[in-house]
């Protein structure tokens, strides 16, 4: 059923202590994707005058959730937002940091999901721009960030098994968003109109021009045949071909791969393939994704990081995939919460910053 403006205001109001999960986004489009995944949205609650954050309230899988969007990107903004959230909602047990990130090819591709998980000597997230500078300009990592809480790792392991047996429900959740919030389609729910530069062969300018001209000529031919032979001669066949191709592309676009492993977090944007690959080498080739918020909260807020891959952290970095990547990350977060039993969350200690 399509959500209307009137329906959004028919909501219940809970109390601050009812909320046990904090969900942090860095960008408004990430918050939009997260909000679209809620089973139910709740009425707003008052916050202290010294807390400028604006929260969205709702539930997924029996969990009451507080959503917040950072005022700007970076680890400092994330740390401040997490601290304010935990002071205001003192029953929060766990956090989810959900949004977009840059992938490390060829291990991941655009539109995939990366989830932080301990690997080798690393606890799932590393702060790549924190360390000491040694002779020769080499940076050596110092310290470490906390592991995700056991309850979230257990839920993630169960979800892995579900994916192996039944496949991910992410495509279904995207379809649900299309039906409930048609204004978000296709930007948030489909990738068939998007191009992955690593999967499409590079063509010369001349080749691209020739393809465009052939497409124009084909459409012109269809119009002339229709004119001389009568309406309906070619269009049924032409439309069936288009629909079949669109259907195949649509199915292909909804295939989402989920990866588990190491995520690097830092305060600087990486837009260089050599720097990206050198960073991966620094961490033993375990790196799957780079982002800019998680390191600010991992040591004080028990949480897991979920990133939809929107670029390859190289010179071709752009915003084309951001909405779709935000949506698949939010859909995975929904899946994870549905594997996490509310009673398991309720017995945990509240998070403190």
From TrEMBL:
The chain crosses the membrane at residues 213-235. Signal peptide: none annotated. GO terms for biological process: nucleoside metabolic process. Keywords: Membrane, Transmembrane, Transmembrane helix. GO terms for molecular function: catalytic activity. Coiled coil: none annotated. SUPFAM superfamilies: Purine and uridine phosphorylases. InterPro entries: NLR-like, Nucleoside_phosphorylase_d, Nucleoside_phosphorylase_sf. Residues 20-127, 250-337 form the Nucleoside phosphorylase domain. The keyword Transmembrane helix applies. This is Purine and uridine phosphorylase.
């Amino acid at each position: 059923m399509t959500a209307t403006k009137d329906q959004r205001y028919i909501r219940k109001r809970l109390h601050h202590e009812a909320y046990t999960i904090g969900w942090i986004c860095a960008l408004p489009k990430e918050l939009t994707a997260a909000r679209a995944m809620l089973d139910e949205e709740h009425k707003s609650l008052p916050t202290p005058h010294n807390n400028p954050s604006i929260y969205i309230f709702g539930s997924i899988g029996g969990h009451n959730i507080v959503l917040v969007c950072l005022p700007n990107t970076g680890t400092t903004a994330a740390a401040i937002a997490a601290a304010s959230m935990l002071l205001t909602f003192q029953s929060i047990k766990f956090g989810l940091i959900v949004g977009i990130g840059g992938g490390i090819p060829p291990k991941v591709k655009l539109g995939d999901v990366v989830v932080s998980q301990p690997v080798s000597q690393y606890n799932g997230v590393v702060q790549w721009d924190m360390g000491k500078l040694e002779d020769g300009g080499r940076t050596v990592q110092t310290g470490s960030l906390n592991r995700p809480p056991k309850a979230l790792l257990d839920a993630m392991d169960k979800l892995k098994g579900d994916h192996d047996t039944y496949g991910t429900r992410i495509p279904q959740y995207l379809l649900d968003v299309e039906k409930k919030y048609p204004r978000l389609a296709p930007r948030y729910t489909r990738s068939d109109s998007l191009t992955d530069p690593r999967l499409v062969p590079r063509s010369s300018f001349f080749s691209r021009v020739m393809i465009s001209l052939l497409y124009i000529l084909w459409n012109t031919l269809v119009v002339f045949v229709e004119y001389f032979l009568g309406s309906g001669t070619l269009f049924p066949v032409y439309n069936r071909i288009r629909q079949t191709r669109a259907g195949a592309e649509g199915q292909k676009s909804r295939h989402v791969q989920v990866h588990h492993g190491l995520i690097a977090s830092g305060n600087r944007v990486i837009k260089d393939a050599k720097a990206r690959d050198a960073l991966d080498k620094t961490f033993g080739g375990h790196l799957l994704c780079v982002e800019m918020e998680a390191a600010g909260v991992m040591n004080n807020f028990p949480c897991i990081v979920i990133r939809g891959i929107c670029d390859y952290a190289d010179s071709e970095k752009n915003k084309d995939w951001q909405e779709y990547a935000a949506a698949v990350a939010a859909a995975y977060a929904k899946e994870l919460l549905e594997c996490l039993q509310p009673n398991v969350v309720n017995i945990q200690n509240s998070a403190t910053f």
